[in-house]
Every structure is written in C-alpha cells, then in structure tokens.
Amino acid sequence: MSDGPLIVQSDKTLLLDIDHILSDECRRSIASFAELEKSPEHIHTYRLTPLGLWNARASGHDAEEVIDILIKYSRYAVPHALLVDIAETMSRYGRLRLEAHPVHGLILVSNDAAVLKEVTRGKKVAPMLGKQLDDETIVVHPGQRGFLKQALLKLGWPAEDFAGYVDGEHHEISLRQDGWKIRKYQELAAEGFWHGGSGVVVLPCGAGKTIVGAAAMAHAKATTLILVTNTVAARQWREELLRRTDLNEDDIGEYSGAKKEIRPITIATYQVMTTRKKGVYAHLDLFDAIDWGLIIYDEVHLLPAPIFRFTADIQSRRRLGLTATLVREDGMEGEVFSLIGPKRFDVPWKEIEAQGYIAPADCVEVRITLTDAERLNYATAEQEDRYRFCSTSQTKKDVAVALAKQHANDQVLVIGQYIDQLDQLSEALSVPVIKGDTPIKERERLYALFRTGEIKCLVVSKVANFSIDLPEATIAIQVSGTFGSRQEEAQRLGRILRPKADGRGARFYSLVARDTIDQDFAQNRQRFLAEQGYAYRIIDADEIIKKN
Amino acid sequence: MSTVAITFADELRSRSDEDLASIFRLRPDLVTPVPNDFSALSARATSTPSLVRALDSLNLWHYQIIEAACALPEPFKKSELVAVTSEETTFALEHLWQMGLLYKEGNNYRTPTNLKLLIGEEPAGLGPFSVKNFDFGSLKDIPKTSQEVLEKLTWGPPRGQIANIKKPGNAIGWLLDNNVLVPLDSHTVALPREIAIKLRGGKIHKEISSKPADLVGKKVVQKQIDLAAIANISTILRWCEEFLHNLSDEPPTALRTGGIGVRDLKRIAEHLGVDETCAGFVAELCYLGGLVVIDSDDQILPTSAFDIWLTKTAEERWYSLVVLWLDTSRVSGLIGKVGDKSIAPLGPELDRAGACLIRRTTLKVLSENQQICPDIKSIQEIVKWWNPQRANSDFVEWSLREAEWLGITGQGVVSTFGIKLLSEAEDLGIESALPKPVDHILIQADNSAVAPGPLLPELASEMGTIADIESRGGATVYRFSEASIRRGLDHGKTGDQIKTFLSKTSKTPMPQPLEYLIADVAKRHGRLRVGSAHTYIRCEDEGLVQQILHDKKCEHLRLRKIAPQVLVTDFELNEVIIELREYGYLPAAENAGGVLLSQPNLRRSKSRPKPPRIISEFTAPKEVIVLAAVKSIRTGERSRKVEPIVPGTSSNETLALINQYIAEGKTLMISYADNNGGVSNRIIDPISISLGTLTARDEASDEIVQFRIPRINGVAPALTILENKADLDL
Predict the structure, then answer these.
(1) Quick one: A542 and A453 in the same domain?
(2) With an 8 Å Cβ cutoff, is B275 touching chain A?
(3) From CA B537, how far away is CA B544, in angstroms rounded?
(4) Structure confidence at residue B400 (pLDDT)
(5) Residues A506 and A529 in one domain
(6) Does B228 reach chain A within 8 Å, measured CB to CB?
C-alpha cells in the first residue's frame, strides 16, 4: 500500500490531498479523465463520470492507463468493482464511429454488430438512420450528425466522430504579441482545443478567455463566427481582437439588434440569434452566410436551448466553448458535451490566482438583521414574494449605502436584481445606474467613465453579470440576485478579478438578510466559489454602520 | 430363511476395529448417537437419511462406481464391476467398502438393499433386466429405422412411450419381435439392461474419470489480489456498519412472513450505494452474526451484539461473520424474485440443503488453485465433479460472488487472508494490512470535512451525528448543514460542545461560516417546545388559573402551568371536569375546535373488541370415524385374544423374519410395545425396513404405520395364529 495523495472512494469520487508532495503530479495525471468537482483549500474532489472517462478515451487514454494511475497514486486499495466499472465504461466509447463515406456520405460503423443492433432499436435513433450497408455499417441521414451523437450519448454508447471538419473559408489570422505575451495556460488551452477538434475551455473570469479564443482563431486561420451574450460583450470582443491579432477593423463585423454586418469575423449575440419573427428564427441564415471554419460560443454555460438545436446542424464545423463555470442550473451539461464537445481544458481558479493572473479576492457575507416591522412584513408575505421582500429591505439599502461610502476611494460596483431597488440605490448614492433599458451607447459611455476612474461607483443590474471588462473595479456589493444561482455569484465575483495595476486584492460583499430565505439562497450561491477555494467571511451589518 | 439382511450386520461385525473406525470417520452421522450393537449400526447405516448423506459426500467418480454396482446383478465380482467401469475402479473399491456402501460376501460384493432404492430402479439410465435369454448376435441385423430408436434409448431414459403396443410400427415392432425391447405396459417399452450395456460398449457410463478437470482461468499477481481483497474486507465491514446504523435510524417493519420487504431493501441498497442482491447479502450476513433481529413488534433493529461487535478489531469483526457464512445453509443468492414469488432477506425461505457443501467445495477448489481467477464454467464443472449429487451452478456462482464481497477473494482469486481463513490460521494478517485509523478530520471552507482514512470509531460516531456523509470509501466526506447540526443538538449536544469537538478534531482551522452556522442553529434550536398532555384547562382570568394551580384539593391532578392562561394535566378530561365541579369550580368542556360541548359525553372504550370464545356442545362424530373406531376395537380384540400365541424373538431374528415376510409378502402378527410400555398385538402387512423402523399397513386402522424395530417383542405369521378364523370373526 503506497502512501499516495489520492483516495478513491467507492462512489467514484477521488479525493486529492493537495498538501501531499505528489499532489501536483497526481493532479496532472488524473485531470485527463476525472472532472474537478470542487477545489477548496485542503482536499480537492474529482469525480469519475462516464462523460469524463469517454473524454479521456477521446484524447487517447485507455482504461489500463487510467487504472494504473489510480492504483499508483491511491493511498488505500482501490475497490475492484470500481476498476471493473471504469474498464467497462471506457470500452463503450468508440465502439460506434461516425465516418465519412465517399459514396454514402455519413455512416455509422461498429465492429460490434450487437451494439449496432442495440442502438438501431432505440426509438429516437432509428429515424436518423438509413439503409444498413452490412452487419457493421449503417448510413446516417445527412444533417443528423449532431442529433445522432446526442441520442447515442443518452443510450450510453457515445459515438466517436471521425467524420472530420470542413476547413471553412481561409482567412489569415495570427496573434500580434507586441507589449504582451500569451500566457502558458492560455496557449495550452488553445492547443488542447485544437487537437481535440471541438470542445470547451474552462477558465476563471478575468483569466483571459478572449485570448484563448483569439489563439484558437490563429490556429484555424479561417472565417469565424463568435456568439456572445450581449452587445457590450460583442464590442469588447471586437476591441480585444483588434488589440491582440493582426485583424483590422474591416475584418470584424457585429451582428446584433443594432447592426447586421457579416464579415469574415462576425460577432453575434445570442439574443439576435434566438429572435423569432412570426414563430420563425429570423437570423438562422447567419450560420450559412459564410463557410465558417470556426464557431466560438462565449459563456457556454448560458447557451440558450435553441442555439443547441442550431448547433446540432453544424457539426462539421469546429466549435469552441468558453466559460468560467461549466455549471448549468438546467443540467444541460450533456448537451454541451455532445454538441459543442468535451471539456478540453480546465484549471482551478486558485491556481491562476497563485500565478498572479487574477486578483486575490476577499469574499464577505454581511449579515443584516431586519427590523421588527420588516420581519413581520416578510413573515406574512406570499411565498413567491418572500425573496423580494427580504432582499430589497430598507435596512439592506442603508447598509449598502454605508458600505459604498466606506469605499469612496475605490472603484465600486453595486449589483442587484430588482430595478426599483437599483433605482433607489442610485438615487441614495447619487451615481448612475445601468439596467436593461439603458441604451447601449449610454452603457458604453458609463463603462468607459468607470474604467478611467471618472466615475467611482456604478449601480448595475444583471446586464453586467457577464463579459463586461472593468479591470479597475475592486469592490462589488451584491444586494440581490437570481435566487440561488451559483454561476451568477461566480460571474459577479469575476467582474472584479482582473489583476489590479497596483496588485491590490478585490473584495466581494454579499448582503444577506438574517433568518430569511435570503440566507438559504446565499448558501447555495456561495457553494461554487467555496468549492473553488474562496472562503467567505461573515460580518455583522452593525459593524459597518458603526464605522460610519 | 433369507440371509441377506443379516449378512450386512454380520459383515460389519467381522470388520476390524480400524475398519469400523473408518466407517465412523467417513460417515460421522453414524456415531451420533452411538449405536447399541451391530444390528443397530447396520440398520442406521442402511437407513435413507444416512445413505443420502453418504451419497452426497461422494465425488462423481465414486458415485458412478456405486451406480454401476447397483446396475449389476448381485452378488458381483470385482472384475465384473471393473469391466463395466474402468481399471481405476480397483482403487476406489476399498474406500467405498469402508464407507459401507458396498459389503463383501466371500470374494463377491453386494450393496445394501436400501442403497438400490436410493439410486433408483434405473441406475445410470439403465432399464430392467431382460427376463428372456437374449441372443446378442441378432443385434447385428437391426434395420436402420430400428437402430435410430435404439440410439435414443441407449443412454437413457430406457423407456419409450408408444401409442399402442399392439400396433407398434415397423421399427419398434422388429425390436419387440426380437426381444431387443420389452413391453412394460400397453403404452411403454423398455430397453433391457444387458442389451443397453452391450450397446454402450460394455461400459455403463459414457465417461468416467478419477480426477476432476483442471481449472481454467486467468493468472493474477498475488499482491494485486491481496490489495483488492483488503479493499473488499474494509468495504464489507463498512457496509455492515452502515446497514445497521441505517436500521437504527429508520427501522423497517418486517413482512408478515418475516424478512425485509422489497421497498425497504431497495432503500437500504440505495443508502449503501450497492445493488439489491448485495444489500440482501449484507443483511443476511448481519443476521447470521446476530447483529440484527426482528423485534417482537416486527421492527427490524440492530441488537446489542452490534455494539459489542463494533468495539472489536477489524479482523475479529470480519472473522466473526465470515466463519458463520462458511457453514450457513442460508443462501442469500436466492433473495429476490423467484418465479412470481419474492424471497426476502432475513425471511424463512433461504435455507437450502447442500449450500454449505457447495460453498466449501468452491472455496476448496479456489484455494487449491491460487493466483488463478477461475472461469465460471470451469469451476462449476469441477464443483459438480466433487459433489454430483448436490451440484448447483447458481450456488457456485453465488459463492464466488459472496467470497469476493467478503474479501476471501480479491479480483476473483483467493487472497492470502482467504487461504489463512480456510486453513484455520490463528492470525489472518488483516489487521496489519488494513489502513491505520486516523484521528483527525480536515474541515474546509465549503462546510465539508474530510476524514482522510478510516476514522476512529468514537470520532466516526460523533461526526455521524453532527454531519451528513457525502461520500464513503477509504476516506469519508462529511457535510455540515443546518439539518445535520440540528440533529447533533437533538442528540443533546450544545453548540459550544460541537464547536469544541470540531476544533479539537480538525487539523485545519474551523472556517468562520461553519462557526456561524453552528451558532445560528444552536440559537434557534429548541425555541419551539413540544410536549404532550391529556387535558388542558384554559381561562382568560389569570387569577383563576393561579387559584386552581395553588388549590390544595386539586394537587393530585398534577396541574402544570405552560402559559399564564393555560394549565395542563395528564388526567382524562371527564375526570378533571368532575373533580373541578366537586371543588366548586364551573368548568365546561370544549372540543378540538374550541366549541363548547353541551351534550352528555357518550363514553366508549379505547381498546378493540375482544369477545370471549364460544365453547359449544359436542357434535355427532362423522360416520367414517365411527366405522374406523369399530374396526379398531374389533382388531384390537382379535389381537388381544391371541396374545399369548406370539412367540418372543431376538432382535436379529425379528429383522430376519420381517425381511423374509417382506420378501414373501405375508401378513404377520407382531407384539409391539407402545410409548407407555404397554404391549399389544398388531396384525400387519410389512412393507419395508429402514432407519430401524418397520413400515407396514396396520390392519386395525388400515393405515400405513411406522413400528420401531427394537420395540417389536415377537413376530409370527398371522396364519399360524389364525387357525380358527371363524372362531375369531365374532
């Protein structure tokens, strides 16, 4: 029995003791097949999932290798049943292959006639298949490549996709590293993606996902469609691409509610793609407008369901997903896997922080005691209004104002969910507010002022949750959120994680009303960050009021 | 007089002391209790249960020789037996003779009569002996169609059905005409034994082998086996512990027939994270060890033996269960649906004869083939060779599966621990192979804690009350939540105690959110108080409430004040009202909705109705019973009259006489001592003797009755006594 850093649990979780001398080596070994579930300060948890194991198979690791690694690093004997299970699961991947046939087009091939028989019996799979050519080969209806992969994954027989990618229309792109250098992990991420063909790269907010996108484009050297969450993000992508690559202004187009430009590099918003006119998606043609060589999905954890459907149709194009948190509150991780691709790169937040690429953050939960009147109001409120009541209370507003004033010399973001509350805060602090109905121009003007430091404080709604680059923001005060959303909390923290010029740390305040449902939601929201190693500190609101 | 039955006893008598010792060693059931004399020994050794045991213990080779012996006409020579089996038979004869399955008559051999009955009328699928002399030469001329018929019958079963014996058709007709087949009845023909043996090439069995086949399997390195086995051992111990703790938390109610219901089993399986067969096995294992019991109120609960078991070392814990599993006749593999019936763990339907034998043989084969992971078919074949009578492929498969769960095997191969267990070694070496227990946990910021190894039992139990287990295995991952902390408080701990315990046990500093969580829950815990009371007294006048509370006369009502306006008591409502009225208060009763009750209260008992049983007059007996009684009295009378005529016989004579009469099919009269020592004469038609018992039809009752041979004082043919039948038929 070795004294390894890894403990293999019978429920298929792997516990990695990161204080162990071999932990680094072990982490690198297991990262290829196990999914990092959480990484708090002492013991990281990985999980063996079919997706993860198939993923490992996809990148050329076999079951024997996986088993050897487990046995090598395991502190205790590894349950035999688990090893058998790993071998069994991994052997399922690749028994079915999607290939391109010179005559019949797309075909599904298997050396195992029984497996082929089993899947062709599936109710969902059968209609996608055409003529059976022989015992081992079946023709796949053209255009079903994505749907078939999705359906086969659900049956537990994931198909390996050898049908290849179209190169797309050539367009010269290369990185222009003047005055900056691509970071090691960004390079690894881009390479990991490129060799895998398609897939998802997971990096913390502020760790430079755009550059990974740019590097991927430099690999592809082809026309690229970039899908982003909103117009502001689209403009940021554009600026970043202009700055980091040798693309010029004419190469890049914006396809949004405001503009409909189609250029070799086109940046479109999810919203415009999912807009329907008379029940039809009006802008779907964009996918076929140019022979795209690469499609990038920014914030892939937010990908709306219709986009998945469109994506299923374009399986022959290379796809790159970018996200900080591959946590989907709707549990559609399987769709991301089968349609965008497997996770190709992932690194713990704290590791990037240790390398100095994201600012260290101090997370503080401020507990607020409601007044008796507010409590009574809360207690008698309808169930569905309760969260609104407790998260928008007057007391909370006072505390938020007091906090903002304490940080008068820092760049502060006040983030909330309810528009009334934001308006009140903006009034009380006499600072501008950015919300859904703020025009894009006005938003950009305010962000620009904030970046230059002319405005020290901004009140923002959830429109600023993602993709908004505000490097100098150091303080975030969250007054309310989308209930218990874990990824929202992480994304909001992400707004202040860009490394500061003076190396200062960031601080994230989350205001929570004590003894209410707010507290329960807060706990759920914090889970993802806590699992990434961000320890929340709790202080009492009275301390803040007193200081003032 | 026939000498057959006496001979076996006599032959036994002539055996040397060493040979007698052998028979006892080979057939241990013969010594319990020790037989009185040789007749008793011979009776016992030829009794059905004892012979069945002896046959069960034979391997295929020995069994085939016994089959062959039963197929030969007696007495037979050694050479005759060797001729129909194989040369190697010579080496087995001594063993079979020592077992008392064969005995000698001069240079010839015989088999005990009862053994033939057990082997059956058609040993090795051979039909009856031919009555007529048969010319083997005619076998050469068999037409092709008849040949096909013969081929079907040659290797048994030797009988064939035909529509009509009178119109047998060409193929069978030829065979019947030439005496190759004999008719048994109007629809059945049979192939006579001699002809079948001839057709089988002078042998009785297709194959006969004095050794089992070699085990086929994969080779595995011992170190890996032991690693896997130790993981299995710690897992099974953890499963047992988890299972019993789970029972204590949520005791299931036993089925009416006993045992754990399907739904409960499913829940337990989910809790343990295993499938239902495995959960059933864990339940059975704990049941064997007396760690779980079905309580008198049908709740399935861990016993106090569990607490003692927990204090033992891992090796002791493991050994105490495994040693019982080795010998149990309960087959947990049966748990689940069998046909349309489901068999429950802990239920009464799991006992199977031979299960232990098969399990032991399976393990023996494993330990004789170390470092080989057996191919299931191959090991099933070998076990079948060792125990042809009890062979059961399922049992072999289940034994292997369970041995793996238990860690007797690792990766399907017998482990060092398994070998030591089977060779009954003192120290199994488990303790030193198991990971050392850890005495600390690591608390992390996300309100989880990890015990990076098996936790000391006292820490584990403490952690179990204040945190939920999120992941199990070599390590344990705990999660603190509001509910888990509340559970800790419910167990009587205070928030401070929990904090102290955690900061003492954790190697890492306690994160602040956890401290807050504990403080928060502790603050709110117990703010609501719940209790039970039978009756309350409420009054808006607090003064009056005070007055009643302090009224000396009301003291015995043991009133308690739970709020300024409310008193409670454990007395019944009516009693309280009557008493209060008596002391001059003016109470009124109210119902659950607080409405005043003005009607008289109709009182009803709370217990279920239990009417007394009805004891009725005797009813007239049925006609059949009356007739039987008359007959019994008449026959008894007849026997009584002739009582003195039955001569006394010694037990050997008795046996010989009865055997003779059985052979002759005569009615006889015996003088028989009943349970109380009273002697009476019975007129009987003897049928068979076995296990020291004579089975016979008793004329008095016209029923088949068992008579104990030692209690028969005398035997005489009925006819010699009933010389004057008319005289007796009154």
Answers:
(1) yes
(2) no
(3) 11
(4) 92
(5) yes
(6) yes
What is the domain partition of chain B in residue ranges? 4-120, 136-199, 217-432, 442-524, 535-582, 623-728
pTM, two decimal places: 0.66
Residue A75 has its nearest CB partner, among B474, B508, B513, at B474
Do B445 and A533 make contact, defined as CB atoms within 8 angstroms? yes
Could you tell me if B442 lies within 8 Å of chain A, comparing CB atoms? yes
- Check CB contact of B410 with chain A, cutoff 8 Å: yes
Task: Cite the beta strand spans of A250-316 per DSSP E.
Answer: 252-255, 265-269, 276-277, 280-281, 294-297
Spell out which residues of chain B touch residue A17, defining contact as CB-CB under 8 Å: 452
Give me the average pLDDT of each 10-residue run along chain B (730 residues).
56 80 81 73 83 87 89 84 85 87 85 84 81 72 78 81 77 78 81 83 83 88 86 89 88 87 90 88 92 86 89 91 90 82 86 86 91 91 89 90 92 90 87 86 88 86 87 86 89 89 90 87 86 87 88 86 89 87 86 71 63 56 60 51 59 79 81 76 83 82 82 75 43
DSSP string, B534-578: SEEEE-S-HHHHHHHHH-GGGGGG--EEEETTEEEESS-HHHHHH
Same domain, A192 and A340: yes
Q: B623-728 architecture in CATH?
A: Roll (2.30)
Q: What CATH number is attached to the domain comprising A316?
A: 3.40.50.300
The Cα of B447 is separated from the nearest Cα of chain A by a number of Å equal to: 9
Q: Which chain B residues have a beta carbon less than 8 Å from that of A540?
A: none
**Closest-CA distance of chain B to residue A14, Å:** 10
**Cα–Cα dist B418/B229, whole Å:** 9
CA nearest to B436 within chain A: A76
A507 within some domain:
yes
Q: How many domains does chain A have?
A: 4
Helices B393-406 and B222-249 cross at an angle (nearest 10°) of 90
Question: Does B404 reach chain A within 8 Å, measured CB to CB?
Answer: yes
Mutate which of B470, B471, B481 to test chain A, going by most A C-beta atoms within 10 A? B471
Q: Are the beta carbons of A535 and B404 separated by less than 8 Å?
A: no
CB–CB of B658/B692 below 8 Å?
no
Measured in angstroms, the CA of A4 and the nearest CA of chain B are apart by 11
Q: Cβ(B284)–Cβ(B335) under 8 Å?
A: yes
Q: State pLDDT tens for residues B33-68.
A: 677 777 777 888 888 888 888 888 888 999 989 988
Helices (H), A33-125: 50-58, 63-73, 80-90, 113-121
Please tell me which of the candidates A43, A77, A515 has its beta carbon nearest to residue B442: A43
A168 in a domain, yes or no? no
Residue B54: which of B100, B111, B103 has the closest Cα? B100
A-proximal residues of B, 620-659, CB under 8 Å: none
Q: Which residue has the tokens 């927990």?
A: B310
**Binary contact (A9, B508; C-beta < 8 A):** no
CB B185 within 8 A of CB B160: no
B63 contact partners, CB below 8 Å, separation of at least 6:
B55, B388, B389
The domain of A310 spans 184-351
Give me B490's structure tokens.
């419910």
The closest alpha carbon to A323, from A490, A191, A521, belongs to A490
Collect all residues of chain B within an 8 Å Cβ-Cβ radius of residue A527.
Answer: 446
Of A7, A40, A537, the CB nearest to B452: A7
Within an 8 Å CB–CB cutoff, is residue B159 touching chain A? Answer: no
Helix segments in B415-456, DSSP class H: 416-422, 430-433
Q: Which of B227, B471, B477 sits opposite A77 (nearest CB)?
A: B227
What residues of B are in contact with residue A375 (Cβ under 8 Å)? none
Query: Which residues face A140 on adjacent strands?
Result: A129
What ipTM describes this predicted complex?
0.70
Determine contact, residues A294/A318, Cβ cutoff 8 Å: yes
